[in-house]
């Protein structure tokens, strides 16, 4: 199964990796590095941790390559690994008394562009504030709801793919998405009033 212009699909690259072609990992890393970092950042809220965990995902892909079931969708397997690593890291940080989880999440934001002036600057500030409000509301969701929401809304995964990644049914994913949206609506409407 090859994609356009003879470029091997993710699944074909995994088959090559399982067969001993270690070079097959490089194109997978190129394709999935940014989506993984984006997904993990939305779960943990810290840029540095997202970068570290994305690299750890690729280490796991390599070390666990024999457990990948040929024919399965690679993205589902990949996001499953990422979700588990993010969940474990959040648990670890919650137990660390040195730094609160809220402070840790606040420290990982990306620097914003401060170069605009006048009305453009005002619009950018308002937009950044809205984005920050939504990000904070998403970050406040319980991890199971947040993971389902991020995979569905930001990573455009199907209900079936999310269910496979999270180890639950498609109906459970649907329920998590409904509950996540309800909680977000409540949180965001209380902010606007």
Automatic annotation (TrEMBL):
UniProt keyword terms in alphabetical order: DNA-binding, Sigma factor, Transcription, Transcription regulation
Give the Gene Ontology MF terms in alphabetical order: DNA binding; sigma factor activity
Domain named RNA polymerase sigma factor 70 region 4 type is located at: 134-184
The record, for SUPFAM superfamilies, names:
Sigma2 domain of RNA polymerase sigma factors (SSF88946), Sigma3 and sigma4 domains of RNA polymerase sigma factors (SSF88659)
| GO biological process per UniProt | DNA-templated transcription initiation
Family affiliation: Belongs to the sigma-70 factor family. ECF subfamily.
What is the official name of this protein in its record? Answer: ECF RNA polymerase sigma factor SigW
Q: Identify the species of origin.
A: Lacunisphaera limnophila
